[in-house]
Amino acid sequence: MNNLNNPPPNWNIQPNARNNEDHGSKWNYALLVPMLGLAAFRWIWSRESKKEIEKEKRDVYRKFSFVQKELESKYRDIIIENRKMVAHLELELEKERNRTLSYRNALISQSYKLVEERRTLEQERTKVEQEKQILQHSGAAGALYK
Q1: What is the gyration radius of the CA atoms in the chain, in angstroms?
Q2: pLDDT above 60: residue 14
Q3: Can the keyword Transmembrane helix be found in this entry's annotation (predicted)?
Q4: Which pick of 1, 41, 122, 144 has the fewest CB atoms within 10 Å?
Q5: Rounded distance between C-alpha atoms, residue 45 and residue 62, angstroms
């Protein structure tokens, strides 16, 4: 066993000599037990607090990762919804373009028909004018007009 009244030279607690004797004071070591108790308590406390800190870190990390996954999921849902909306609007735009193109083609074809009808009416008119001229210059009606 250790003799606390005769500590090795590297210890920081040295006995006080009393009455010029070589024996140390008992009261020097009276604080040793509470100091050792405090050191043990500090060591245990630090280990326990480290465990609690690690536990809290894990809990915070778990909550953070859950929130992050939830936000990423919402972000993906919003992106998917926006892509669907864009696709739908592109389809609507394509329908409107096709509709305007068909209206344009219908107007062009109708204008061609009107131009053709006008030409045929002009031809019929000139033909009627020619027949009128012929009838004016020939026969009994021609004598009337002369």
Answers
A1: 57
A2: no
A3: yes
A4: 1
A5: 25
Task: Tell me the C-alpha distance between 12 and 94, whole Å.
Answer: 91
Q: What is the mean pLDDT of residues 118-136?
A: 92
d(CA 32, CA 25): 13
Spell out the residues 6+ positions from residue 17 whose beta carbon is closer than 8 angstroms to its own. 23, 24
**What's the rounded Cα separation, in Å, for the pair 77 and 115?**
56
Beta-carbon contacts of 29 under 8 Å, excluding residues fewer than 6 positions away, are: 4, 5, 13
Q: Which run of H or E residues covers position 138?
A: none
- Tens-digit pLDDT profile for residues 58-103: 999 999 999 999 999 999 999 999 999 999 999 999 999 999 999 9
**At residue 81, what is the residue type?**
E
